[in-house]
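Troubleshooting log. The previous structure file for this entry was overwritten by mistake, so regenerating from the original sequence record. Sequence copied from the archived sheet and checked twice against the printout by T.R.
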Amino acid sequence: MKLRVLKLLIIVTITSEVHNTPSHGAPRFVEYFCKGNEYILSSFGYYSSEGYSIFINKPLLAMTKIKLQFDSGCAVQFLNNDTRFSADKDTINNIFTFVLVKDVDNLMFVVRGRSAPNHSPYVISLKIDGVENCREPNRTYFQRYTGVAKLFEKAPDKFCGRRRINRRFTELIVSGSGTKAGDWPWHAALMRLQKSSIKYIGGGTLISKYLVLTAAHCATINGIPVNPEIMNVVLGKYTLVARDIALQEKEVFKVIVHDGFNHRTLNNDIALLKLTTEAIYNNYVQPACIWFDGIYDHLGPYDIKGTVVGWGFDNTDTLSTKLKSAAMPQLPDITCIAFDPVFYSNFLNGKRFCAGNGNGTAACNGDSGGGFMVFVQDDLDRSYYLEDYIDGAWYVKGIVSVSLARSDASICDPSAYTIFTDVAVYRDWILNNMS
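Regenerated output below.
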């Protein structure tokens, strides 16, 4: 076995010498990324067009079945004819299954993720004939090398708020627009039984495998928490009136409403829905990060821009059939109070903030409970940074609470600003209930 390892490392070193030039970026490296396992290793190159290689450095017999799972979307390629793929490839959970067609001394394959070096998919499971060979996989080892964006060091959680589906260009959305399935994997649809039918009542944000963050007014009736037996949470949803490819319909075990919630004034308009069964993370279902004050030091300028998504009323005064997004800046309280002194001064009390464009793009009826999501970039090595690709994580900073109604209908005024519950104020309450 030691001889095989030596042979393998020589091959990797030769490859490194070929690519170790200024025009090709950083040299390759070798990592043993499965804790306690020294026959599975990874070799990584700077440009993702090369991808990175995984070696299983042990003899394997013909008909051996290998099942790989990654933490994000990718492609797997074998460079010889030793294997064939099984038909049960799972592109939702990033699972690849293949079978050896002959005996081999060792096996190598190439993994290609996004076309950017700072977002390579990590192996989270490697089973050989049903036996897990990669327990406690390292999901951060690329971080140690030049040319790779560094995860936000102060972030309490390194893996939340990240999209898992390949996208050609930047994560950022700069204006209100349509979305694609998988763009907002933490956004949840809240459904409630009303008069023998299930109806959509608002949005929420998945923040852990068991908790969805939403507005208290979406989870109560006249200030009383809704019976959890008549509520459902739908994860991985993109189209409101049709079934999607990766739906997870979850029953609600408990409705947790803030003790200080007042349904008349909407003070403390925040609630948590505890799910009966855990959410399964995949390309279409992921948790968002929870805002914390340390982010301000990371952002630089203190002007905050966020994005709200939902199936709320569009310009035809009907619910949108597909998930829509609207980008908007957080505004000083005085800006919103100047727009309508009576309305905004009644709501802006230090536990809320207002945001919007004042141009017809706004959160509206049906968007309640959804998150005000802020994108926080990873720390980038500017000498290797590629302008088309910006990696980072999405943090929920606010919850859609209330907006000014039009004078002619009980529908939001799209030229007005939206008021959000400030998640930072309630961070401790959220974490206490999360535990």
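Confidence is low (pLDDT under 50) at residues 1-27, 168-176, 382-388. Archived copy saved in two places this time.
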